[in-house]
Amino acid sequence: MIRDPNVPIPERTDQDEPNVPRVFLREPGWRVGMKHGSEREFCHNIAPGEEAYHRLSDGELFVHSADERLCLPCADRRGLLHFEPKGLGKARDIIELDGPAQPGDTFKVIDPKALD
Ligand SMILES: [Zn+2]
After folding, report:
1. Residue at 10 is within a domain
2. Nearest to 81 by CA among 90, 70, 93, 92
């Protein structure tokens, strides 16, 4: 979106939500790059509603592989970008192990559902 130059930029405070989310690229073989200068370089994807490849602009961040270069909106449409950090996985049920009470006792596995 192009900002209207006649509309003043609103003051931002530390409490404002950022306009840009955290972005993660985890696809093997893909890297992030930045377009430098006025040399004509194109995104290798035709955006919906357009009929031609669009140019990357000076200073624009893009993702690239050995074969392709995509602007961030096209990379998002392709499903290459993620907006959440990798989690530690789904929480698992806790299994309680009761230690042996007496010498010679064995461990006893207690199903947590049986405690409810
Ligand atoms: Zn694009």
Report:
1. no
2. 70
Q: Quick one: DSSP state of residue 83?
A: S
Burial label for 73, CB within 10 Å (0-12, 13-18, 19+), is middle
Q: How many domains in the chain?
A: 1
- Cα of 84 vs centre of ligand 1, distance in Å, is 22
Each residue's pLDDT tens digit, 22-54: 999 999 999 999 999 999 999 999 989 999 999
The string of pLDDT tens digits covering residues 77-93 is 999 999 999 876 666 67
DSSP label at 60?
-
72 alpha carbon to ligand 1 midpoint, in Å?
7
CA of 40 to the centre of ligand 1 (A): 14
Residue 90: inside a domain, yes or no?
no
Q: Which domain holds residue 31?
A: 24-82
